[in-house]
Every structure is written in structure tokens, then in C-alpha cells.
Amino acid sequence: MSTKAEIPVQADFTAEVQEWIEAFDQVVFAEGHEQGAELLDALRKRAREAGITAPSELTTPYMNTIPKHEEEPYPGDRDLERRVEALIRWNAMAMVHGQNKKDAGIGGHIATYSSLATLLEVGFNHFFHATYPSQNGGDQPGDFIYFQGHASPGVYARAYLEGRFDDQRLQNFRHELRGEPGLSSYPHPWLMPDFWRFPTVSMGIGPLNAIYQARFMRYLENRNLIEKTPRKVWAFVGDGETGEVDTLGAIPIATREKLDNLIFVVNCNLQRLDGPVSGNKRIIDELEGVFRGAGWNVIKVVWGSDWDKLFERDHTGLLLKRMEECVDGDYQAFKAKGGAYLRQHFFGKYPELLKLVEDMTDDQLAALHRGGHDPAKIFNAYKRAIEHTGSPTVILAKTVKGYGLGSTQARNASHQEKKLTDEGVTAFIKQFDIPIPEEQAKQGKPWRPAQDAPEIVYLQTRRKELGGYMPRREVPALNFKAPELEYFGEWTAGSKGREVSTTMGFVSILRHLLKDPEIGKLIVPIVPDEGRTFGLESAIRQVGIYASEGQKYIPHDSDMLLSYREEKDGQILEEGITEAGSMASFTAAGTAYSNYRLPTIPFYMYYSMFGFQRVGDMIWAFADSRGKGFLMGGTAGRTTMLGEGLQHQDGHSHVLASTVPTCLSYDPAYVYELATILQDGIRRMYQENEQIFYYITMYNEDYAMPAMPEGAKEGIVRGIYKFKAAEKGKATAKAPVAQLFGSGPILNEVVKAQDILAEKYSVQADVWSVTSYNELRRDALTVERWNRLHPAEPEKTPYILTALNGSKGPIIAASDYMKSIPDSLAPWLLDRLVTLGTDGFGRSDNREHLRRHFEVNAESIVAATLSKLARDGKFDAKKAQAAFAELGVDTEKIDAAKA
């Protein structure tokens, strides 16, 4: 009885559901997908209000996001584009294949580009704009493309077809030292400064930088420093690369900032270097959930057009069911093992699916395309991506690694494939119907048709319509005049007895620069999270923190003079707790002189301890990008930052900075040194266009800042100058003599040591401020090399020896860093040098105890000086030993380096 009553109710509800579906379809088809999405959001909100928990849908069925009936016709000449792509595939393969035949082991990669080729070609032919028209005439920079690094041979091969490289250049792939122009292994702006914009081959670097590049683009637009254009940032990412935390770690930033100028294209060829990315699952499902959960617009391109017919013939949904039963390890095998295997192991599970393909041969089954190899599917995905607004887009494109490479296709070894057999080359030509003369094919050499061939004419026409060739890097002439040193007179004059830190001195200089009518707008202050730690409250009030939507709230401290202020045109980039993200912003700003034709000057302030060691790879990529700017390592030093302990105290960042060829690192003790270095850096980087950048350590220790000594400028910039000479009036003819080196706040300990040595032990010591051991070493190495290569010429003298000319006695060098920093000058200072430093783990305590522990306090410097003089026979050894007790130096305590 009750059952009969329920049936009509269920029928009525089913009919009602159908009405809702029809109404929804009307909205979608009449008004578009955006309105459909808004309607769904409204219904979900209403459901939550009613206490109904709707199931989460972070993943969608394993099929294309854009259904067949919504696709737009492909606008290009498919046949000519296929021929162009085939020629590029050939030349990419011939380049790597040929190099490894004549130079075994030279390397290069074929498999990545073979999976990516169509994804790139659709972009090159229809979407990648090299320029955009300017509102004021001329043009504006176009789209930015972060290429998948291992696909570089394909990008070179396209440039070859365009006539940008000749045959010899192409055949010099990975031959950069043969007396002729070569081609670098991967995208390296340092090695090919007129071609590559972005280094990307270090996994995760490209995606992270792309996100912050898109954000920086909006920053410049909102500050009215560049025109607003439709330009996009495209990042081509390997699915295996998403395992690197840098790739996915910042994707919520793109959503928060509504970066609809950002498009990720994830090349889902299902393989890392050694095997499947996610063999027991499906990487496309995983990434869809991650990106959709982060608020990205997700477009899946899974199956090619030839699968559409099978879907149309399958009225049971069994085909999709079977697809969702398989994992990526299965899909890899389906492509690696051919049509018969696919028939047996995929379709063969269900009789209905076998019947679905009974009219297809094994070869036809093997040829079924994945979406990332189908231009029509890719075109529609790209078109929808560039038209989408309000959030970033990710396109998940399913491809085959090693696509078309015969026995290598989809196999775990495809990444290591560097050359093909003769049979493999023949099969490759047949697979893609490559239009190449038979003799050229036999030789396996690069080939391009005549410039008036239809393929070349088409390729050139498409690029002309899209604004020119890509990739391309240009550096426009910049009419930039750096301020003179006199401009910084307030800081070179000293603090008049007032105690301040070099960090506070820097903030004061920064605020002055921000006010400058000429360069103020170009200054880009960047800080991870502790702007108040660095004393930036006044600067925050002065120019505001950048916020893409402005400030939607009244800050709790709005009634205070230095309240927190966010503005849509704010100048400070306050990034939150992310050194990597901050470094990505620094990279975007530090390369803007080329990418945006705007010489922005970034100052990135951070805890020095968390700088180089945390984002060393990003800093190396910054150098590769020919970036400019100032890394300001705040709260620096192993003993200067009292209380914080092991994880915060920095005694090694200058060691790490020394490894980067274009990084000039300085450790100033006083604000006048800092001002001099900043002035010279702005001049060299932006007026003289040197492609270098600076690492400068700052400290939170307050002390009186002296005025700049006359004639000190050259020494400050080059790395050393005499700060305070010994008081000769107290000296006797036989008085022992020594030279004391100091840098950063430890210079003050050295000055104290100078007084103790003179007053208690009658030792006359000069004090030298060493602003940069690294620059002194580089200069010495340059001079040494010149001398070695020119034995018939008079020897040149390194600056360290020129500066010390006439000085006598041992050299005792003390710094707040590891001993290896001063020790780097040992080849030129020989046995004169004794180094004191802060090797070992930090401790939580005050500066007095920390410096005693690491033996860099004044007393330890005095003891080391007396010990060395005694060893040299210039001071009584027993008196030296007794002095240790007088100075409170514990000769039996544990070595700090091992404590």
C-alpha cells in the first residue's frame, strides 16, 4: 500500500528535477557559461543557508571540459600547420640526434618537445602575441611565455624555420665554446640574451615566477606605470614538475589577486624522468582537484577529436566508465604497447566496448589521439582561457611523452632518448609525414624549405600578425641618470652621536628615494612579512602597501600616526611569509627594464638567515635572467641578532652570495658605507646598464655613525679602506705593529681592540674596514689570471695589495661570518692572515656572550693579535700567554665551530 503511494511522488519529483535541468540549460545556452556558474554558486549558497551540505565536486568526469557541440571551428590552415609542425619536429629531433652521433653524451632531450609540440604550435600560430598596439602609437610588450625547459630543441627548431638561426647555429646546439655562436642547453637569458627571457629548467622555478610576474604586471598597471593591455603570462609546466613544491605552493595567490592574465598549461604526459607521475591514480584528476580547490578556472583537454565518434556511438556511458577505471600506469602502457594491446586490455574488458571498435584496425586504435595532440581541442581550450575573467586558468592537456618516437614512445626511458636508429628516423618521418628530401632524411640533418614555400610563408604570416617572433629578449636604451653621492649627504655626514642601526639608516635612505621626483616611482620595496621589524612603518604610511582591491576595512590602528595602509596603487609589496614568493617578485621587478621597458629598482628586505639558503635556486635563476636590484639581508650576523638563536642567526650568507657570478656582496659597518654602495649600485646597474645585482647585509645593533672619511669612496666600493690609523705618537721605534680587519658591527669590536692593544700592550695597529671580501677576491683572481696569461708584461697588483702597500705586521681579520670569508684572501696575504669568525651553530644570548663564545669580541681580537705577534717573534710569548688570562679569554673552552 505504502509502496504504491510513493511511486507517483517519486515520478513527480523526477519530473521536477527535469524541469530544473531544462531551466538551467536555457540559462547556459542563452546567456553563457559564466551565468551558469553564477547560478550554481547562488544555489550552493542557498543550500548552505538551508543547512544542506552539498557534495564537493573538485573533480569532473575524465573527459574534455569543452563538449564537442560547444567547440568553435579551427581558424587556421590545418594542413599547412601540420606541415610546419612536422618540420619543427624533424629539426628538433635532427638537432639532438645529430649532436649525439658526432659528440656522444652531449645530451639534449627529444621526448618532452614531442609531447608538447602541438600545444606550442597552436599558441605560436594563434595566441602568442609578441607585441600589442599602444594607445600612444608604437607598441607595448606582448605575452610572456615560460617554456618547459626540456622542450628547448623545439623552440630552437621553430626559430630556425623562421630564419632566425642558420644551419651552423642549429648544429651548434650545446656547443657554446667552439668559436661560433651556439645554442644553450635550456632557456638561459645569460647565455642567449637576445632570445630567452626566462630560465625555467630548474623544476618549479618557471611556474612560481610566472604567478608573481602576472601579479607584478597588475601592480605596474594599477600604479599607472605601464599601459593596460590584453597581455597574458603563459606557463608551460610538466605534470611531473608539479611534484616540486614551488610549482603549486603559490597558486592561491593567483586566485586571491584574480590574475586572469595568467594561464598555466600542464603538459600531462604522465611521466617523470624515471616513470609514471602518478601510476596508481590519474594526475589530471589530482591536479584538477588542487587547482579547482584553489579557485582556478580548470579546462581539461583529455581526448582528441577521433574519440568523439566513439563517445557518440556509446549510449550506455560504458566508455567513460572504462576510462575512469584505468590509472595513469595503464594509460602509459596503452600507448607504449600499441593497438592490439589497447583492444585487449582497454576495450576488451567489456564486450560492448569491443563491439564499439570492431570496425577499427589495430593501427587505427593505436592512432587515437590524446587531447594535447589535437589542434582543434587545444585551440578551443586556449580561446576559452584568454576570454575567461576573474581568476587564473589552468589547462590540463593529456599527451604522450616521446610521442611519435617509435619504440621509445611513452616508455620510462624516453627522457634519456638522445638519438634514434636509422629505422627509428624512417618511422619518425612516416609517422608525421615530414616533407623532407630523401637525401636530407638519410643524413639526419636539419632542413627547411625555401622562404617562398607555402609552409614558411604561412609561418611568417602568422607571426607577423601576432606582432613578431617569440621568444625574444630586448633591452631598450634607458635614459637613466643616477643621483650623485652628494645626494646622500645626510647619511655620509654621520649621526652626530645619535645611536642608530644600519637597518634604520637604510630605511631612511629608502624613504628619501621614494620621495624623489625622478626615480621615486621606480623604487619597488619588497618585504616578506616583517616590515615593522625592519622599521618600515613610516614608509608604509608614506607610499602604502599594494593591494589589488584597495583596502576594504578600517585598520585597528587607523587612529595612530603610522597606521597600516593598503592601496590599489600602493608601492610596497608586502608578500606575507614567503621568501620564495618575495624572490619571485624581486625577479619580476629586477627584469622589468627588459620585459616592460621600465627600469624598476627593487629593494628586497628579509632576514638574512632565510635569504640565500632558502631560495638559492631562485637567486641563481635571477642572475641567469640578468636581473638587477638590491637584496637587503636584514638582522644579519651570527652574533649581532641577539636572543633568537640557532635558526635565525646568519653567519654564512656571504659565503653563499660568493657563488653567484653577478652578485656583488657587501657587509657595511656604517651608514655612510651603505649610502656609498647604494649610490654606486644604482649608477652601475641603471645608468651604466651593468647586469649585476647586490647583496648587502644590514644590522639591528645601534651605535653612533661616524662621518665618511675623506677619500674613502673608492675603497668602500672596491672592498677595503683604512678606517683608523694607529696613534703614532704613542709608538716607539721597536713597538710591534699589526693590521686589524673588521666588517659590519664587528668593526666596532676591532676599534676597541685597537685601543686595548695600544694602551695595555704597546702594539700599534691600524684598523681597516672591509666592506667586501668577495669583491676583493674577485679582483685578485682577475689580476692573477691576467698575470698568468701575460708573462712578458709587467705584473699587475690586486687592489687588496695596493691598499695595504706599506702596511706592516700580521693581519687579524674578524667578522660576524664564517672564517672562510676572510680566508678567501689568504693566497695573496700569505702567512700574515689570522682569521676570526663565527663558524658553528648560533645560540640564544646577548651580543656580549655571543661574541665571547665565537671569539670575535675585542678581547679575543687582542689575544689573537698578541698570539700571532709572539709566533712571529715580535712579542714576548710568555706575556702573550699571560694576556689571555688578563683579557678573560678561556683557552680551554670548546671550539664554537663544534659546540
From TrEMBL:
Mg(2+) binds at residues 239, 269, 271. InterPro entries: PDC_E1_N, PDH/Transketolase, PDH_E1, PDH_E1_M, THDP-binding, Transketo_C/PFOR_II, Transketolase-like_C_2, Transketolase_N. Residues 107-308 form the Transketolase N-terminal domain. One of its GO terms (molecular function) is pyruvate dehydrogenase (acetyl-transferring) activity. It catalyses: N(6)-[(R)-lipoyl]-L-lysyl-[protein] + pyruvate + H(+) = N(6)-[(R)-S(8)-acetyldihydrolipoyl]-L-lysyl-[protein] + CO2. Residues 719-856 form the Transketolase-like C-terminal domain. Keywords: Magnesium, Metal-binding, Oxidoreductase, Pyruvate, Thiamine pyrophosphate. Residues 487-706 form the Pyruvate dehydrogenase E1 component middle domain. It comes from the Bacteria. Its cofactor is thiamine diphosphate; Mg(2+). The keyword Oxidoreductase applies. The keyword rRNA-binding does not apply. Its EC number is 1.2.4.1. Component of the pyruvate dehydrogenase (PDH) complex, that catalyzes the overall conversion of pyruvate to acetyl-CoA and CO(2). PANTHER family: PYRUVATE DEHYDROGENASE E1 COMPONENT. NCBIfam families: aceE. This is Pyruvate dehydrogenase E1 component.
